[in-house]
Amino acid sequence: MESLQREIILIEKVCEIYHKISKLDSLKSSEDVDSLFTELVRTCIPPSSINIATLPADVQEIRSKLIRLCGEAEGHLEAHFSAILGSFPNPLQHLNEFPYYSNYLKLSRLEFDILTEHYSASGQAPKHLAFVGSGPMPLSSIVLASYHLKDTIFHNYDIDSMANSMASHLVSSDPDLSQRMVFHTANIMGVTDELKEYDVIFLAALVGMDIDEKVKVIDHLAKYMAPGALLMLRSAHGARVFLYPVVDAQQLQGFEVLSVFHPNDDVINSVVISRKIAEPVTIDDGYNHHHHEWRIDSIMPLSCKYCEFKTFNDPLGQMKMIDN
């Protein structure tokens, strides 16, 4: 009973904040905007047993609208600080100006640890990684590339050319990252064969604001990713579902879910890692040419089970901004 009462109070508080946010003239960074979203995050971070499937229809609708408002506000916040950082001669030396930088440090470390546990291509780090929904301030890519994956090429996809221009400017003065960070302006639903080139693909939490949109993107990735490649997704758990969309294991058709981690600190996003299931292959047995529904990994030596299936070159050379 006490737990139920806490949930009711929490939901009432979230709805109250939503109504205040929805009345704002703009979601661009300001004292009122920052104050309300900070209050919302603080309300949703504590552990909660809320089950979104049992929420009333009106609360479900508020949640859907709130996630979109959060996404819009997050975009404005990142663009605001990307412009500020971009005014410095060496923007990457001032990343701690961004108010949530410490969260990105923690989240990236968590994702790297989870990735390392499951990525096993001859003990090497991924050569080519894609981040879908990188935005004007691609902190995840920057942190991973700077501290954890120091030889990996990062391909950052965003549908907004201005966001990519701002993001590219942030790394342009860095002699290392300017050569390892590539920016593609494209709707990921229009990207096909290129997806086979990536050992790992990260899908940002706000790519696909509702479950139907998210599943369409996941299905598209399942169709074109290379067998054995890893998909890293960000989800939400507890009351944090009011901030970000939720990804359930059953929605990852074509993938084998390897691990799901729900943080209980100030890192908001849950992390889901999955592996693209290999397609069935035709086996010629030398007699009747039977078609066996065997997966590639079932006919590879155990020591090579998760080896790369293809060797890639970087065809982009010095070109780091791509409009598809």
Strand-and-helix sequence, N→C? HHHHEHEHHEEHEEEEEE
Radius of gyration computed on alpha carbons? 21 Å
The number of E-state strands comes to: 10
Mean pLDDT: 86
Choose one word for the global shape. Answer: globular
- What gap, in angstroms, lies between the N and C termini? 55 Å
Uncertain ranges: 281-324
Strand order of the largest sheet: 6-7-5-4-1-2-3-10
Q: Strand share of the residues?
A: 5-15%
Relative helix content: 25-40%
Specify the number of helices.
8
Tell me about the largest β-sheet: 8 strands, mixed
The SS-based structural class is alpha/beta
Describe this structure in words.
There is one protein chain. The model is unreliable at 281-324 (pLDDT under 50). The longest helix is centred in the first third of the chain and has 30 residues, at 57-86. The strands form 2 sheets. The protein has an 8-stranded mixed sheet. It has a two-stranded antiparallel ribbon with strand order 8-9. It has 8 helices and 10 strands. Helix 1 crosses helix 3 (57-86) and helix 3 (57-86) packs across helix 6. A hairpin with an 8-residue loop joins strand 6 and strand 7. By secondary structure, it is an alpha/beta fold.
Care to give the gist of this entry?
Mean pLDDT is 86; it is low at 281-324. The protein is built from eight helices and ten strands.
Please name the defining characteristics of this protein.
8-stranded mixed sheet; 10 strands; alpha/beta; 15% strand; 324 residues; 8 helices; globular
